[in-house]
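Ticket opened by: R.M.
Priority: normal
Category: complex prediction / small molecule

The reporter submitted a protein together with zinc ion and asked that the result be attached to this ticket for the collaborator who will pick it up next week. Submitted input follows.
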Amino acid sequence: MTRAKLAEQLRQRLQEGGEIPSEALAGFDDDFIVSSYLDTACEDCGKKLAEGVDVDQVLAESRDLDDFFNLCVNTKDHVHAFAHVRWPTEL
Ligand SMILES: [Zn+2]
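Result attached by the on-call engineer:
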């Protein structure tokens, strides 16, 4: 995948989730979406999803969003709890 593809899939998932008003979502640019996702911290240890991860390398190996997430998590030393990305509902 590329970063653009990652952003596209995240955007799609957020739209489907319906947690974020679509007008707020429309205001998120790709970089913002990707960096918010990568900055998601584990609820247990506080480590970020992308911490210690070569993001571009992992992206290149990923087929889709879930694949990317799993590859990131697999580089960590325990099972992290990354369930809640705290997206802003407005900018
Ligand atoms: Zn953790």
